[in-house]
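Worked example 3 (structure in, sequence out).
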């Protein structure tokens, strides 16, 4: 799966994330699980699943 961490300053695309007491650790999906970033909860707006199917616009049904 691919995730996008939305922060106040930028978005970070990652393959894996870990929640801890003070924020979110973001990782790439390579075999070494490369650390990409740490985002404190104060700066995290959301984590989105980029692979999720989007529902069609209900107004056209």
């Amino acid at each position: 799966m691919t995730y996008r961490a939305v922060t106040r300053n930028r978005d970070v695309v990652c393959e894996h994330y870990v929640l801890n007491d003070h924020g979110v650790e973001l990782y790439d999906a390579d075999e070494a699980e490369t650390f990409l970033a740490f985002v404190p909860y104060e700066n995290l707006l959301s984590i989105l699943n980029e692979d999720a199917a989007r529902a069609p616009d209900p107004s056209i049904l």
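Notes: Residues 3-52 form one domain. The first strand starts at residue 3 and ends at 7.
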